[in-house]
Structure formats: structure tokens, C-alpha cells
Amino acid sequence: MIAAMGIDKAEACKGCSSSVQVSEAQLIRLLGKIKAEDAVADDAYRERLAACGNCESLAYGTTCMHCGCLVRLRAKLKAGRCPHPSPAVRERWQAAVKEHA
Amino acid sequence: MLKAIVHTDWATGTINKNIYGHFSEHLGRCIYEGLWVGEDSPIPNTDGIRNDVLEALRELKVPVLRWPGGCFADEYHWRDGIGTRETRKRMINTHWGGVVENNHFGTHEFFRLCELIGAEPYICGNVGSGSVQEMSEWLEYMTFDGESPLANLRRQNGREKPWKLKYFGVGNENWGCGGSMLPEYYADLYRQYQTYCRQYGDNKLYKIAGGANSDDYRWTEVLMQKAAGQMDGLSLHYYTVPGSWESKGSATEFDEREWEITMRKAMHMDELLERHGTVMDRYDPERRVGLIVDEWGTWFDVEPGTNPGFLYQQNTMRDALVAAAHLHIFHKHCNRVQMANIAQLVNVLQAVVLTEGDRMLLTPTYHVLKMYAVHQDAEALALHGEFGSYGTEDGKSLPQVGATASRKDGVVHASLYNLHPTEAAEVALELRGSEAGFDCDGTVLAGDAISAHNTFDAPAQVEPKPFQAAVEGAGYKIRLAPASVATLRFTPRA
After folding, report:
1. pLDDT for the residue A94
2. Which chain B residue has its CA at the smallest distance from A62's CA?
3. Among B29, B188, B305, B316, which is disulfide-ready with B347 (CB 3.0 to 4.6 Å)?
4. ipTM, two decimals
């Protein structure tokens, strides 16, 4: 929901408004919004995260450079998919859900 | 019924093609992943730049591309981005919260990108954390054809001939991330820095001074008073943010009230151009100095689940209408506005292209810019009519319909949008000032909802479709769907 609807006169500094570093507390808050029925099994989640952890495209320990997503959220979602341009890498990630279905 | 009357024999100015310009910053996944994937990537590429995006940008007819920032420009040291890529310095881009920058995309790669998409380069130099010497030497490196250590360094790095570079910005947002300066101080610095922006050989620079944020008219006043004679252009930045900077609002989940607020804020650009233009007229009545709107567009909360520092947002029919409204405003002010650069090209803010791994989609904003490309370098035509009203916020209303028209090589193009999110608009369009009859065809962009957008799994939800105007009497009858944008072409009959 939008907090203020009027035209702002005092604007925040755009450059300082966002950080690529995401705290554990932020991640836990975001994970808490995922509904149980949308989440994968814990084993599949762990396998996906392990794959992300070994991927050269993981940045800041949290973020996939191929899609900009926070991998702990994407890995938790049944609908999540690996965006790596290599099919072999994608298939390994997707297979984790099937194995633990 | 609403009315739009186009005077085909009454040109009001020339629409500089550069108002259809773009902006690409080292931020999030704009440069890296959105454009640069590297030569060894499994994603098909040309010299490291992904082919799918190149093809889309060529189709779009991008006239000019600004780089490397933005805030990043005032932290960028060009020497870090030349030479063998493996040995380039890795650095931290602190403006965006500590982004790691490996400098694999530097000066040579940027010029190659411009060459591949047919865009003119617009480079922004570092005033905030750089030096006069550093800026001067970058220009020498890029544009000097003779014998000098810097020209020789360029040759060692594989580029024998200098590049052609016209547009050069002397700093960015120097009131904020570019140095937190007062206008008096920046005006003096601008005069100093630009002195050493040398014109080498037949390369003629168009020097752009860092301009105002939004409605900071005093900044424009001071810069014009102190430095108008030393500049060719003065920039202006304004973003359409429906909420506050702390809570901007979702890019895809919004109601009709937020739609209306977004449109009102987009239309604020007209007042900004009018008022900054009035200040500039006082010092430059001949309108020699161009107003360069080198950052504009929507700014929403990032897509849920994505890194907040990457500024990645989706793009709906709301963005399409914001883009169309801005282009109409720029056409209206085409005697002062000489360039505008939507922020940003790929994956950041109001992007025309989004990528995810090896997949790419074109946004509704892309389609509007492509439909409107026919107006590039055309003569703007006088137009009047009755455009209805839309909106109730604070008792203020906006015209429901926007219309703009231009003429090039005898062909007239008219573009129209309907701001209303739920009601169609019927418009009687008349072309005056020509005895020849016209054949008419067109294109329309509309979605099945105001939040309609393309996704990687459904990339063709919002696409332009053929559009017809019904002949009625001496004119045409046009039905614009709610929240739609259309461009009509009128070709004189032989």
C-alpha cells in the first residue's frame, strides 16, 4: 500500500535509498510471507540452495545474477525455477523438487 | 465526441530524435547480464553483448545512449575499464550499496555496443570524485587522433582510430550523489571542467551541464546565469513515483486511484519543462542551450523477492501510458528539449527490455517507444481539439485523451492515448492544410487490464496490433480502448 499519495517536495537521496546487502532479518521476514502450500519440501529446499551456493552467479551470498532474485526465496517456492543459461545447471536444480516430491 | 484537429501545413518545431534516447547505468543487472554477458557465455553474443537484446534495441532505433551513470558516473574512473579484462580492477560501487564491479564493460565495450545498435554515445564524466585531469584525459583517450601517450594507449588497447563522441556530460546530479554541491559551487566547477574538455580534430563536443532535480528552479537559474555561455545543454531529472521514496508502490498491483495519481505525477513533467524553460529563456532567448531530460520514467518498489539494490521492476500498461504522456510533453516542448533518456535500458526501473538468464521480454514501454519512433526528427505539427477530462483527485482533472502529430517526407503521423482506465474514448480526427487525400493505417497497444504486462512465460500478453480509423465525412473516427495508445500513419495518395 502506498504511504503518501501527494506529490513529494522533499525527496530522499536516490543513490542512498537502496542497498544490495540484504540482512538475515530481511530474508526471514520475506520467507515468512510464503504460504505453506506454495513451498517445496525442506530437502528440496536444501538441495536447491546447495546448488545456488556452488553457482558462480551467486552475488553477495544472497542474489542470483541471472534474475536478480534472492535465492532463498526462489528456492523455497514450488513455482521457482533456475534461470541459469546452461540447461544442465537448470535441470539439476529442478530435479531437486521431483526427487523430494 | 472528442476532437483532434491536426494542421498538416503548420510546423511548430523539429522533434529531435534524441528525445527517444536511453540510459544505461552500472546498476543492478542493466549492464551486466542485461547487456554484457561476456564472450564465453552460453547466451549467444557479439563481442560479449547478448544478441537477443542487441536485436531488440536495433529494432527500437535507439538514437542515443547515456553511460556509465547516473550516480555511478561520479564514482567511475575510466582507467579501471580499459586494457585486458582479466587485469581490470575489481571495485565497490558504493552508490548502490556496495555492488562489486569488475570493470569488464568499459569504454571500448560501450562504444562497441553503440556501434552494434546504431546509437550515438553520450558519456557522463566524473566531477564528484574525479579531477579535471582525469576527465580531460578520458576525452583525449577517446577522441584524439594524433601522437600522444593517451592516444597511443588507446591504440595499444586495440582501437587505432579515435571514436566520434558528441554528447558529453560534466557530472551528474551534482546537487546529490554527484557531490552534494550548491549550484553556485557547481557552476564554477562546471566552467573549470568544461574548459579542459578539448575539441580534438573534427570531433565537436556538445557539453551538457549537470542540471536540476525536479522543481529546483533555482539550480537552473544559477547555472544559466553563471555558465550558459559555456554549455550546449543543461540536464533535468524527474521520476514518476506514485507513492513516497520510502514506499513507492507496486509495479503491478495497483488500483484505479493509484493509476490516476501516477498519471498526474507523470503530467507534472509538462509544468517542469514550462517553468525550467521559462528560466532558461531569460538567459537564452534564442534557445541555443538544449534542455536535456537525461533521466525520466517510473520508479516503483522492486519486484517481490528480488534484490532491493537492483531496482528491478515489472512494466505494465500503466508504464506504457506514462511513456506516451512524456513523449507528447517532449514533443510539445521540442524547441527547448533536445534530448531525453528514459531510465533505464534493461532490467532497471522503467526498462524497455527485461532478461532472466537466456530469456528476454519486451515491455509495454518498449512497444510505445517503437510505435512512436516515426516521430524521430519529424516536424511537430500544430494540433488543437477537445480532449475531455479524467480524474477527480483534489478536484483536478487531466485531459482524458492526449494527441500529438508530426510530418516527415510528406507522411503525417498522429499518436493518441486514452488515460482513462475504464472508459473508451471516441475521437473525431481531422487533418487540415492539405488538399491531398490520405491512406490511413495504424497500430494500437492495449491490454486486458490496466496492470497487463508481459512475463517470461507469457511474453506476448501486451503487443501492438493493427489499428484502423473509420473514415467519417472529411475526417476519421477513432475509438480508443481504455488505457490504450495508438499511432496512425497518413500517407498522401498519389
Report:
1. 80
2. B307
3. B29
4. 0.90
